[in-house]
Amino acid sequence: MSDLLEITGLTKQFPGVLANDNISLSVKSGEVVALLGENGAGKSTLVKTVFGLIKPDKGEIKIMGKVMEPGDTAGVIAAGVGMVHQHFQLVPVMSVTENIILGDEPRKAFFIDRKSARQQVIALSEKYGLEVDPDAIIEDLPVGMQQRVEILKALRKDVNLLILDEPTAVLTPLEIDELLVVIRNLAKSGVGVVLITHKLHEVMAVADRVLVLRGGKAIGFTSPKETDEAGLAQMMVGRSVVLRVDKTPANPGKPALEVKGLQVLDDRKLLSVKGVDLVVHKGEILGVAGVEGNGQREMVEAICGMRHRLAGQVLVDGVATKDMHPHAVHASGVSHIPEDREKHGLVASYSIADNLVLNQFDREPFAKGWVRNISQVNKNADAVVEQFDIRTPSAQNLASSLSGGNKQKVVVARELSEDLKVLVAAQPTRGVDVGSIEFIHNQLIAARDRGAAVLLVSAELDEVLSLSDRIAVMSGGKIVAIVDSKDADRNYIGRLMAGMKA
Amino acid sequence: MTQTKKKSFDVGNWLIPMIAVLIAMTIAGIMMKIQGADPFSAYKTLFTTSFGSVKGFSATLGKATPLVISGLAVTIGLRAGLFNIGAQGQLISGALGTAWAGYTFTGLPAIIHLPIAILFGVFFGAFVGSIAGALKAYRGVHEVITTIMLNSIIMGLSDYLVVYHFREPGQLLTRTSEIQKSARLPILFGLPFGFFIAIALAILAWWVMANTTSGFRFETVGRNKFAAWYAGISVKRTLVTAMMISGGIAGLGGAIETLGVTYRFEPAFNAGLGFDGITIALLGRAHPLGIIPGAILIGGMRAGASNMQFVAGVATELVDLLMALILFFVTAPLVTRFFKNSGSKAVTGGWGN
Amino acid sequence: QAATKPDCSKAKFKIGVVTDLGKVDDKSFNQSAWDGAKAGAKKISGGCATYIETTDSKDYAKNMALFADAKYNTIVTVGFLMADATAIAAAKYPKIKFIGVDQNNSTTNENLTGLIFDEDKSGFLAGYLAGYLTKSNKIGGVLAAKEVPPVYRYGQGYINGVAYAAKEQKKTIKTVVVYHEVGATMFSDPAWGATTAGQLLSQGYDVIFGAGGGTGNGALAKVAKKKGAFCIGVDTDQWFTVPEAQPCLVTSAMKSLSEGVSDLVNLASVGYSTGGEYKGDAAIAPYHALASRVPAAVQAKVKALTPKVLDGTIKTGV
Amino acid sequence: MKEFLTKRNSFIGIIVLATAFLYSKDGSITTSVVSTATAFALPLALAAMVGIMCERTGIVNIGIEGTLLTSAFAAFFVSSLTSNILLGFAASVAVGSLLGLLLAVMSVSWKMDQIIAGTIINILATGLTSFLYVQGRTIPSTFPEYDIPKLKDIPFFGPVLFMHGPLFYFGIFVILSLYVALFKTTWGLRSRAVGEHPSSADTAGVSVARLRYINVAIAGAIGGLAGAFLSLELVGSFERGFTAGKGFTALALMIFGRWNPLGALAAAMFFGMTQAYANQLMIDQVVQIPTQFITILPYILTIIVLAISAGKVRAPAAEGQPYEKENA
Ligand SMILES: Nc1ncnc2c1ncn2[C@@H]1O[C@H](COP(=O)(O)OP(=O)(O)OP(=O)(O)O)[C@@H](O)[C@H]1O
Ligand SMILES: Nc1ncnc2c1ncn2[C@@H]1O[C@H](COP(=O)(O)OP(=O)(O)OP(=O)(O)O)[C@@H](O)[C@H]1O
Ligand SMILES: [Mg+2]
Ligand SMILES: [Mg+2]
Hints:
The structure holds four protein chains of four kinds. Chain A is of the alpha/beta class.
């Protein structure tokens, strides 16, 4: 039987970047092809082009033997292609149902048939075991939940070809396992799947074939049978990568960050942090494990002065910090890698250079009193881009032109590029490739070893396990347990996260 | 913003508008023919009167001055993501405040009287502006509504004040007494002094926006107020400040118009100046220096309008048409495409943020 | 505005009209003044009139200078707003005869004549007529801003005229004039005029005076749609300028602007200028087709009253 | 309805109560005031619909004033040329949608700054109408008032709602159907999606550009209706600067009504009421306060109401930004 998808000689040039360089790929039905590559390698560009969201400069795309009109998304959808986008394609102010039916709505005459729409959604989420509230408004949902919606949207119509661009970046271990099962079943039923992910064990688990991209070029095909995770990593980065974090045991000093009886409301004005007490000592990493949406985000924002503290205190070196005043908190020595880099972390229309000083633009050396020192800003930028290996033609380019992972690097670089007492890192490696993950992890540990107190919040249980010196498990807005990483057991913590009494 | 800074020094950015203006004038010329006037003598008149003679050029700059300033007011707002439709109202309150200070205080030397009068204008403009700013920051009321409403309110209020309190004794018209000699702006090298103030202000504004921390705060709030908030910029305070400064500048425009041209407050004197400011700001792509050429061009057309009608019988509306055509061809990518295929980038963000 | 504008550069006796903010076809006072200038020019051999339409009230002086520097013999400036500018120009160009329409003139320049009118008188007559036409004993007016002196005089005269008629008939009549908010749109807001007139009509006001450029005309047009109601125009005989109002237009409170201008222009052409102020005629327009709806007795009363009001034996109280 | 019946809008309730109270005191006056208010309100409301139509699909339309002015002129001009007001009406709708298309070309195809595009339309309108305007023209007739039988006899509501001209009824119909279309139909869902997050619509196979073109053109047509209502039904003539800033007030009303047709209608009604009562105060000569105070009353009230109801109004998110497929 013929190939579901046949890409030949695809080339796409962005200003200053050759994102795809003469790439060819074919996907048979029932086959799972994984796309691997560093941040900025061109994975999203490739699949977006297939889906008709980007017009290629050269090359041809055939779906089920039929040549596709460049940029004809509707045609691609009609041909039975579904796609889960790396950057959620959801309308924030609309309900889950509305988002899922958008573009092909069940209708009575001109009117939307809301009842049957709602039933479709419920049926869909039962079929794939991805639970969602059909009436919830997207922007009120935690990212993990949004990711489910994004996936259901793609699965709604019986697809022949399913494209998943980093679908697991924000899912919990359980959710990931569920999704991998779904993928395998789909493949069994004859669907072709293209999966983009930075998590090598996922590739090893589901992929039949792997295409590795580097700098827009196809480096070559491989398959889980022929290689192992280290091999994949080496192939995509072009050098050997240490996947396991190896760190010296911590030697904690006196408390640097103290959280006392903290209570916080979420955006819906519901109590989501229900009295949290934490102590992070100098020179240690305290990891907060927990299923997304159990109050971690609200806690972090409250600690960093970005969200009103209903009750409780946040002390740095024993001094209480100001509520609702990010600047004051930051000035007292707290750095913050925000969870939502697009919204809080970056000004998309600013140059990378300006973004790298976003929260210290008014300090020496970047400003002398009232006047900014632009040359210092640029000097700093060139240095940091070099040091953190941010993939861009120039530090003067706009942040919006960076790939997801590189955007994250910009934020991390900014927060680490000054000496700090406390570092609050929320989802620091989300959507970041293995090479960069290794790099960021080493940076966090280096900060620790410089005597900083690091509060790490991550939905990646593995990340928490491998980086933390102590692990706090958060569930239902409370810290349900604090365990020493030496005697931390994956399943035990997993159960606590799921809210079960261990 | 390093981006925007480069823009203004790029040759294409000067050549393209030139050509755009020529195309616009050709079309307007055709309309003049239709209307039965002679375009050539019309344009000849326009240039000889508005740009040809010192006297004429001085008149042009006189007209351009309030345009530069109100254009600047709108620009500052746009930079901080605020669309200040209220320049008109702020300008009027400034003009009234200045006029009052101008005729009330007597026996002061110009050195003292002028600055005081100007300060009055700036203060009242800033006051009106900051009302909109505060309502936006602390009550979330959209500045487009408040400024539109404030325009009408100021219109009525200033009129009430003049009619019932500040009216020139024994005068039927709604207008104040004339300001003291000591409060009049001088003429410098045959050119209106106000224009030099306007230019100086534009350069200052450009430098501040590009090189100071305050400028960076404005820009950041304007582009992503959440990131600004995360970066520890006080969004509320920035919004209020931006509207206050924008209003203050508009008020200054009213002040200079009063001290340099009208010598008294009379409602009709300031008609439309604030609204032209919006056009100018957009023509200059919300760049503090970019607004100057546009202001001078339109100032020249305004100054030459009556001459064109007198000499060539051109209907005065054609100036409006010409303005629209110029704005169209300068901003539409039609001409731009012809040179480099760069789509024009937005200078405003809708009512977003 | 398609009409090409006359070129007087070669003419023997040149007349220049400078309009107040507004155009020479505004169906209102700029137009009347322009018509007057043209009429005047016709009567003079080698006479020629042209105009400049002011777009910015700061340009009055500049626009007059354009005519003066081109050696115009007479300059007509239209509107009370130009009074000062005209006085200054008159002093600056003693050889040129200036005619200031709607401008009180206290200067001693004998080359400047202020052409003024007793709007209150024609307003009074209109009100008097209204007082006899109303059946509901409710009489209204929709006017441009009362800050504009001529408009205000019309309004007050109108009110007092009604009162006078009411006294004669020993009955009480409710009179209301609604003024538009002062400002740029006060003379060009027909929608407001119409809606406000509608409000008065719906409350039983059956005679309505519409005064103030487009705003007033809007009111007239609205009243025209209401059967049995009367409307009264302003400035010129609006039977001709606002035909859509003919169903209700019983008369117009006029000031003979065109005649006044034309007369003064002709005086100027023989080198004569009264200086000071020149009172133009005030009057009310003929009833035209609505004569049939005005009882003969009432027509007689108005006819009898008119001279007394015009010569001032009956005070308008303004 | 839930978008619209928020507690923020409770002030509408207050107005209704106040009106009811006044009605109980003097029925005929209140009736006349309120029906006057509707006449003030309708053109404003329709103008606001233009804004809502555009902005809900992500196009800022600051050129409403120009659209109204031009189409009002077209309505008047063509009616007087052909002495047929129906042709005049057709002309104004056509001109309105043409201006809509112009806006679409500039902002969708050429990706021009949308505020600039709107401003161009405004200046162009002022210049053109004033340039082409010839005095002395008149129209054969205006759209006659048609009192709907039976309904018109309902006390209060009869005169207020059912004693107007055809364009008034049509206008109300348009507003109500726009509300339904926006929140109940697939077209509405897609339009709002395009206005909030175009790439989502795009990835769902909805053509962003096409939908924007269509909606902005329809919006223009509605502007044409508003213009025709002014010149062919309400007034029956045309003057320079005829629309007297209604297009800008409409922007405020659109935001006041939170981009919701019914909200904007209510806001317009609120505005009309204050204007009508301002007149009534003068008519009744109850108060001896300067007219200026009466005339600025509506504007002050609007600000106060908004400040109290603290409308943290949220514009359609994608508004003002041209959509680039590449950045999807
Ligand atoms: N719209 C755009 N304009 C300019 N450059 C772009 C654009 N989109 C992507 N790029 C560049 O093209 C390159 C490939 O981007 P792409 O998003 O495909 O990388 P990726 O492999 O998906 O990275 P990641 O794993 O971080 O998602 C990057 O260098 C990125 O900066
Ligand atoms: N990204 C954001 N997340 C949460 N709330 C925000 C955000 N941005 C703004 N706000 C809200 O808007 C308000 C404006 O921010 P701002 O920085 O001005 O507050 P503030 O620092 O208390 O002001 P001030 O310093 O003048 O007292 C904040 O008080 C906050 O409630
Ligand atoms: Mg990607
Ligand atoms: Mg990417």
